[in-house]
Design goal:
This protein has ten helices and no strands. The protein is mostly helical.
Length: 263
Amino acid sequence: MHLAAYQIILITVYAFIAINDSLISNTLTQPAIAGMISGMIMGDLKTGLMVGGTLQLMRLGIAAFGGASVPDYFTGAVLGTAFAVISGKGAEYGIGLAVPVSLLMLQLDVVARFCNVFLLHRVDKAIDNMQVKRIPRLVLSGSFLWGLSRAIPILLMLLVGDVAVTTITENTPEWLMTGLKTAGGVLPVVGVGILLRYLPTKQYIPYLLLGFFLAAYLQVPMLGVSIVGMVAAMLVFKRDSDKPVAQANAGTSNFEGGFDGDE
C-alpha cells in the first residue's frame, strides 16, 4: 500500500494540533487515541487500535514529572500505525517499529523544549521593557514551534517511509521480521509490569488471579474481563467509602511505595 497525499496531510495536521492540545487536556496525544485516529485516516481502524492500545499499556506507568522528557509514544503510535498498514505486516510489526521511534523522539522533545525556553526569555525581556504587544506573538510562536516539533518529523518519515518501509519489508530476512513481531507481542507485558510496580498489587492479588483465570482458562474476551474488573472496582470503592474517616486516615496503609504511619 502507498500513502495518498491527503493521508499525509491529515496525519501531519493532526500531529500539529494534538501536541499543542497536550499542553491543555492531554487527550489527543494518548497513544490509544492517536492509534485510533491514525488508523481511521489510513483506512484500518483495527490495526490503529491494536498499535495504540498496546503502546498505551506501556505509557500507563510513565509520566513526565517536573517537565522531564519521556518516550514519545504518541508519535510512536502514529507512525507505528501508518507503517503497519503500509507494510501489510500487521500490528505486531508496527509496535516493534513504534518503540525505537518513541525513544528517538525523546531526544527531539528536548530540542523543542530548549527552543521554547529561548522564547520564554524573550517574553521576560518584553515584560521588563513593557512591550506588551510582543508577548502574544512570542507565545503563539512557542505553540507553533511546539507543533512543528512533531509535525515535521512525522511528515518527513511519512514521505520517506512510504518507499523505505516497503523496500525494507520486502528485503528483510524472515528471522528479523519474526523477531520484531515477537518483541511487539512481548512489549505490553513491560507496560503492565511497570504499572503493577506502582499499584497496591499485594492488596488485590485475588482480583488479579481472577482476571488471569477468566482470560487464560475460560477464554473470556477482554471486554468481559474488563466488565468483571469494573464490578470488582465498584465493590471495593463502596467498601472503602463505608469505612470511618478516622480509620481511612490512620496512616497504616500497606500500599507499595506509600508511607508508614510510624515514620
